Amino acid sequence: MAILEVCNLSKSFDKLEVLKDISFNVEKGEVVAVIGPSGSGKSTMLRCINQLEKVSGGSIKVCGMDLIAEYKNGKPVYSSADVLRSIRLKIGLVFQNFNLFPHMSVLKNVMEAPMCVLKKSKEEAEETAMLLLKKMGLEQKAASYPCELSGGQQQRVSIARALALSPEVLFFDEPTSALDPELTGEILKVIKELAREKMTMVIVTHEMAFARDVADHVIFMDGGVIVEEGTPEQLFGDTQNERTKQFLQRYNNDYKD
User: Fold this and answer.
1) pTM of the entire structure?
2) What is the SS3 assignment for 126?
3) Alpha-carbon distance 137 to 20, whole Å?
4) Residue 185's pLDDT is what?
5) Could you read off the pLDDT of 67-103 as tens digits, one per residue?
6) From CA 62, how far away is CA 45, in angstroms rounded?
7) What is the pLDDT of residues 138-155, one digit of tens each?
8) φ and ψ at 140, to 5 degrees?
9) Fewest 10 Å CB contacts: which of 98, 154, 191, 241?
10) Angle at CA 3, nearest 5°, toward 56 and 220?
11) Does residue 58 contact residue 10 with C-beta atoms inside 8 Å?
12) Angle between the 151-163 and 122-135 helix axes, to the nearest 10 degrees?
């Protein structure tokens, strides 16, 4: 069953068309990697799906629920507040720059959403948070504050925070781009473990080796369109598209070496 269905999605900022006729599905348990050069529309697409940007056209369906109810005079009319809230509870987003609450401890950062959004008791939220922090190897940092953590540790807290709401699909917007190279591996290890657990994920990434190793399906975007998509073997090993070949040429040379 498709957890996410994106059909003919478009997005413009004034006269600048950033997304053009984007269509793809994500099945339950599938890991989709989205690759492409800077400015290709990858992050904008995630922001539209996560209700951080208004779409200009097309449709988005999450767990069978429509984000846009209809179009009037060419303008999107979003679904009711209740439907939008239900959709938000089905998805989680891990940002590039962590976005942790600086005035809260690591434990409280993870507890906050379950208590405020899901109305869980403090005891239940704390139990879940500690389990997730242990999963991230951070149970000893529960009382620490974000400023006391490395970038990799902060990103693992942000992943735990997203998982605390038990989303059906988890989105990552270049989760390693703000990290030093030596810290990147620990985040990729966490995501690989989630993939082994069959967590449904959509990952915008510039880590080509990671995309090749962890994804079930790869989407290559450029200029606001999906240029090519397929299995990692198809895109990285047997692409027939010249633009994809050009983008992946440097990576493929490194991979062979």
Assistant:
1) 0.92
2) helix
3) 41
4) 85
5) 999 999 999 999 999 999 999 999 999 988 888 999 9
6) 14
7) 999 999 999 999 999 999
8) -80, -10
9) 241
10) 60
11) yes
12) 130
